[in-house]
Design goal:
By secondary structure, this protein is mainly beta. About 5% of the residues lie in helices and about 45% in strands. Strands 1, 2, 3, 4, 5, 6, 7, 8, 9, 10, 11, 12, 13 and 14 form a 14-stranded antiparallel sheet that branches. A hairpin with a 7-residue loop joins β4 and β5. The longest helix has 10 residues. The protein is globular, with a radius of gyration of 18 Å.
């Protein structure tokens, strides 16, 4: 890989990095809160080195290492992930590019086949490279793709949170019927999320285990996604981070660069 950053960072879909906002005792309108989560400043760009641990129901684990690049240009978000190890996944790359119409184009590069394939809309409910995240989880959905309701509040790890229910509209073609997010009153990001399938069954849980304020941006540095159907877990740990670095350029977010391995 031609880029060799000294300090790096990851952000996965709308679930990863957001900034500080004033605490409120009065609940805001639900759609307004959803817009804050969607639009919060995550740096003009970022770079990351991240470890990924896959844990099965028998507590057997596999480790992976990856680099992630992110950039926001006029509110349009782009992301590129490159796996570095182990050997069986090294070189695999993933590119996600938001479109002005709210759709997101996704591409997966497989070095063994030496080709890139586009992820079709019908495939976005599938597992992202055998993790507990799906391709849908790897994109930031437009606010208008769902209806919202604040149903209460609860304290999570000492933080008072609003409970925000998200119900995708039929036109969004989501794999989920409901997502329940716990949003701290002072930080516009989910610290816990419950995902429900189209049969209203609770199938997955996302949790932030550790938050750090880095370059004035609150960053989840240890997160876990648990699949309740098979007891499988995916744990992501940010090893090193940097925001707003000159090493991230718009020319990196192309299928040509994705295949440059």
């Amino acid at each position: 890989m031609s880029i060799k950053p000294k300090i790096l960072i990851i952000t996965l879909s709308f679930l990863m990095v957001y900034s500080l906002c004033p605490a409120r005792d009065q609940a805001p309108p639900a759609t307004e809160l959803a817009e804050e989560v969607h639009d919060y400043y995550v740096g003009d760009n970022s770079m990351a080195r991240v470890s990924m641990e896959l844990v099965d129901s028998n507590d057997r684990s596999r480790m992976r290492k990856m680099i992630n690049l992110n950039m926001d240009i006029d509110g349009v978000r782009k992301s590129l992930i490159r796996f570095l190890e182990p050997a069986d996944i090294a070189g695999t790359g993933f590119l996600s590019i938001e479109q002005n119409n709210g759709d997101t184009e996704q591409f997966l590069y497989l070095p063994a086949l030496d080709r890139t394939r586009r992820i079709a809309s019908a495939q976005k409910g599938r597992s992202f490279v055998n993790t507990d995240f799906t391709y849908e989880d790897m994109e930031r959905r437009p606010v208008e793709d769902a209806e919202y309701e604040i149903t209460g509040q609860e304290t999570i790890d000492g933080r008072e949170c609003w409970i925000l229910e998200v119900r995708p509209v039929p036109e969004a073609a989501s794999q989920y019927s409901l997502i329940i997010n716990w949003i701290p009153k002072s930080i516009a990001l989910p610290v816990k999320s419950h995902f429900f399938d189209q049969n209203d069954k609770h199938i997955k849980t996302y949790e932030v285990r550790a938050l750090e304020k880095i370059q004035d941006i609150w960053t989840p540095v240890n997160v876990i996604m648990t699949d309740h159907k098979d007891g499988h877990k995916t744990i992501l740990i940010t090893e090193s981070i940097e925001y707003n670095t000159q090493q991230v350029r718009s020319s990196l977010f192309t299928t040509r660069y994705l295949e440059d391995w």
